[in-house]
Design brief:
The protein has helices at residues 13-19, 66-84; strands at residues 31-36, 40-46, 92-104, 113-124, 127-136, 139-152. With 155 residues, it is α+β, with helices and mostly antiparallel strands. The protein has one domain (3-152): Thiol Ester Dehydrase, Chain A. A hairpin with a 2-residue loop joins strand 4 and strand 5 (127-136).
Length: 155
């Protein structure tokens, strides 16, 4: 790929959109830092009161839905996978296969900045397994283990 794929580099929102198909309102990461292609990265999500999901979850008491925290981890993991692929990455998508051991420790509220630490546990061929931990100011907010599959966009 290009110079943005160097180990430890960060990718901004524009670079994320170059790599994965997610867009507003479902692009849930603002940037990815400390990328170790094929191994790990840290996604950054600045949670604001303007998030569309806060209208219904919950009116007057906004809390980021846990499944969206896990989705943000998965989007970060997709960057890890895409960064590890060769020049065929533009022809690939990364799909969820499973979510295990999801734990939601503290509510994520407007004003929080989530650091989504994802680390590969296993990755061979088309199937990759990651552990994700979402932290805000060093406090664990959520964690999960999830598996994803790399597929061709034409499948």
């Amino acid at each position: 790929m290009d110079a943005e794929t160097t180990t430890g580099h960060e990718v901004d929102a524009s670079g994320i959109m170059d790599r994965i198909p997610h867009r507003y309102p479902f692009l849930l990461i603002d940037k990815v830092v400390d990328i170790q292609p094929g191994e790990s990265a840290v996604g950054i999500k600045n949670v604001t009161v303007n998030e569309p999901f806060f209208q219904g979850h919950f009116p007057g008491h906004p809390i980021m839905p846990g499944v969206l925290i896990v989705e943000a981890m998965a989007q970060t993991a997709a960057i890890v996978v895409i960064e590890a692929l060769d020049d065929t990455a533009s022809d690939k998508l990364v799909y969820f296969m499973s979510i295990d051991n999801a734990r939601f420790r503290k509510p994520v509220l407007p004003g929080h900045t989530l650091k989504l630490e994802v680390t590969k546990e296993h990755g061979r061929g088309k199937v990759w397994r990651f552990k994700g931990v979402a932290k805000s100011e060093g406090v664990v907010m959520a964690e999960a283990v999830f598996t994803a599959m790399i597929v061709d966009k034409t499948e």
